[in-house]
Design brief:
This protein has 383 residues and is of the alpha+beta class. The chain has two domains: 266 residues, L-amino peptidase D-ALA esterase/amidase (4-Layer Sandwich); 100 residues, Roll (Ubiquitin-like (UB roll)), CATH 3.10.20.340. 32% of the residues lie in helices and 27% in strands. The chain contains ten helices and 13 strands. The strands form two sheets. Strands 1, 2, 3, 4, 5, 6, 7, 8 and 9 form a nine-stranded mixed beta sheet that branches. Helix 2 runs parallel beside helix 3 and helix 5 packs parallel to helix 6. The two termini are 32 Å apart.
Length: 383
């Protein structure tokens, strides 16, 4: 695991008192140099005030210096003044960083319905800012966890014209995971958060396109329980410190950068599934020979979100009828005589399901976990 941040970035985390037992719950990512930013957010119709604020900031401003993240409180459904409280947090932290509040983004994860404790955050912010460090990645990754049992960090490196570029990401998520993240341009279920940082010199259009491609092929391909969060967020900063030739959309450098970003995101997405609440299995569901990618994806999601299939996987019960029923419920016009299903041995920790619809040439893959008694216990007491 590479724990170094890209050039020009620092991070830190502290315990502000949002979580019990003095656990770290407040993280800050900072770039001394203004960075280009891109973001994708949940499609849930009820969203966190942190999502509302960051989405608006991305639409209206540029030149971002950082991201403040809290865990333990979703900052959602907590009253009409919730958005104002969110902007006050941004203002308090921005003042300490000596930047404008519109150049700072925010994300939150935790319990829905509780008021965001702005005074606790304000009190902890000086220590948070003072401790910013190029080696602060691990601390930040630990602080954003809720029901996670392990940190999720991934990195990639590439060279463009002898200039070394780093892409680094960290994420959290273990339950309430079924992201369907939407594109936010100047103009995502416990919750999934991911923060991606790069020192690459890249155009805004290329950054937006690369992030959309990477997320569509990673975070938007996972589900733990089919429950969409109010807070799902992916934010990316590019501070251009690597001084490589500018990466533009569709040029020769763009493909290389996009593939490395996808690699980082897919690693993080799989880590989320492997750390799913109570999970004992990592399951890959691949649907082939569909008429469209959307049809293949819909079929795979129907299987992945089937509680009957997921409990069968946990019980090592090779009951193909549960897969068949899920396929039929997807709405795809699958014919019994054309349908082929292959399932690897359920006794293994990693399970692979391949479905052939015999309807076309398109395919899609979805990653999920099994459903266990421990998942029920965790969520029965989560409050």
């Amino acid at each position: 695991m590479i724990l170094s941040l890209p050039q020009g970035f620092k991070a830190n985390a502290v315990a502000s008192g949002i979580k019990k037992f003095n656990r770290p719950d407040l993280a800050l990512i900072f770039s001394q140099k203004p960075a280009k930013a891109a973001g994708l957010f949940t499609k849930n119709k009820i969203t966190s005030y942190s999502v509302k604020a960051s989405a608006k900031l991305l639409r209206q401003h540029s030149g971002f210096h950082g991201i403040i993240v809290n865990s333990g409180n979703a900052n959602c459904f907590n009253g009409k003044s919730g958005l104002n409280r969110t902007y006050r947090v941004l203002k308090d932290v921005a003042r300490l960083l000596d930047i404008k509040e519109e150049n700072l983004l925010i994300a939150s994860t935790g319990i829905i319905g509780k008021v965001l404790p702005g005074e606790k955050i304000k009190k902890a912010a000086p220590l948070l800012v003072k401790g910013l460090n190029p080696r602060g990645l691990l601390k930040a990754a630990k602080a954003i966890q809720t029901t996670d049992t392990r940190v999720k960090i991934s990195s990639a490196r590439l060279k463009i014209k002898n200039k070394a570029i780093t892409i680094c990401g960290f994420a959290k998520g273990a339950g309430m995971i079924a992201p369907d993240l939407d594109y936010v341009k100047i103009g995502a279920r416990a919750t999934m958060l991911s923060f991606l940082l790069t020192d690459a010199n890249i155009s805004q259009a290329a950054l937006d396109a690369a992030l959309k491609y990477a997320v569509d092929n990673s975070f938007n391909c996972i589900t733990v329980d089919g429950c969409m969060s109010t807070n799902d967020t992916v934010l990316m900063l590019a501070n251009c410190t690597a001084a490589n030739p500018l990466i533009r959309e569709n040029d020769a450098y763009f493909e290389r950068f996009s593939q490395q970003l996808k690699y980082v995101c897919l690693n993080l997405a799989k880590m989320i599934i492997k750390d799913a609440e109570g999970a004992t299995k990592f399951i890959e569901i691949r649907v082939r020979q569909a008429r469209s990618v959307e049809e293949a994806r819909r079929t795979a999601l129907a299987i992945a979100n089937s509680n009957l299939f997921k409990t069968a996987a946990y019980g090592k019960n090779r009951n193909l009828g549960r897969i068949v029923a899920a396929i039929g419920s997807s709405g795809v016009d699958a014919k019994e005589g054309n349908l082929k299903i292959k399932v690897s041995p359920l006794i293994r920790k990693d399970i692979y399901v391949v479905v052939e619809l015999n309807r076309g040439k398109c395919e899609a893959v979805i990653y999920t976990s099994d459903l266990t008694p421990e998942y029920v216990k965790i969520n029965a007491r989560y409050s």
